Each structure stands twice: as C-alpha cells, then as structure tokens.
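Wed. Picked up where I left off yesterday with Methylated-DNA--protein-cysteine methyltransferase. The coffee machine is broken again, so keeping this brief.
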Amino acid sequence: MKKLYSSVFQTPLGLMIAMAEDNGLVLLEFYDRPALPTEEHELQKRYGYTILPGRTPHHDAIEREIAEYFACTLQEFTVPLITPGTSFQLRVWNALRQVPYGTTASYGELAIAAGTTMGASRAVGAANGQNRLAVVIPCHRVIGADGSLTGYGGGKHRKEALLRLERATRFDGPPAEQALLFPE
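Structure written out below (tokens, as returned):
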C-alpha cells in the first residue's frame, strides 16, 4: 500500500488540501471542492493509496510556492508532481501545463494541443475537470470558445480571481494591493 500524506493550509482564496507521497505532490484542491471525496476514493481504490494525516517535504514546497504564486512572485511551479491517470488524461494535463501564465485557451484549443480534434472538446473538458492539482496544473485557464468562463471545480469566483491575478501580474507587474485582486 502506498502512503499518501494529507495536510490543509490557508490561501487568499480559502483552505487548500495537499496530498503527497514520498516522490511528489499527488493532489492539491480547494478544501470545499464538491468532487474532493470522489478524488480521494479514486486515489484509494484505483491507485492503491492509503491516505494518512501528515507531511512530506513536498507539502512545505507547495505551501511556499502557492504563497509565492498569490504574492505574484511565482509563475511556474517546481514541486515534483505525481499524476495517476489514463493516457488521455495525462495528454490533456500536459497540454494544460503548456497554457502560458496570464493567458487562456478554449476547450477546442486544448483538444488540439492534446493531440485530438476540436470535436473532442467534451472529453477534454471531462479530463480537465478530473485534474487533481488545482492551480499547479492550470485548469482555471480553460474557457469557452466564446470567451466565457466555464465551470471550475473550485468555484467560478476562484477561477475569476486566479485569472485576474495572473492577468494583472503579466500585464501590469505585481499588484501593490492583493485586496484589489481578492475582494471580500
């Protein structure tokens, strides 16, 4: 049985839960994500993890990197990732990692980047929604073909805030006041 250590930490957008094994980060989600119990169940039943409270050096790394991300001083995460999934999911998640900071891509564009056709948008959307590494594998950067904000497992308000943070940093430099990016 593989051990997966779990801990919770605070961010400007609410509590996040991080789960890591000895070799890297396996899950990073907003604690109130409705799909979190399903993700935990899949990690246990499909991938053979036992989830325990605890920490690894990867927890320290992701907490530091998430703090730097929200402080607008980090645009690329370096924490090692473990991404159990199907070959299709892995292709989609790798394509997601290629969407540049501060930009967006449509589901159709992501489908093409993942080596499928524009018609695979729904399948790509499903794989996007099954990403267990919020913010790090930037599924928040995927929008509708018409430019509309589509669903986000962490909530639409968080998707808007993450995109606002990245756009402000990319085009205007680090903002002086985070309160402008994360209004109460």
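Quick read: Residues 176-180 have pLDDT under 50 and may be disordered.
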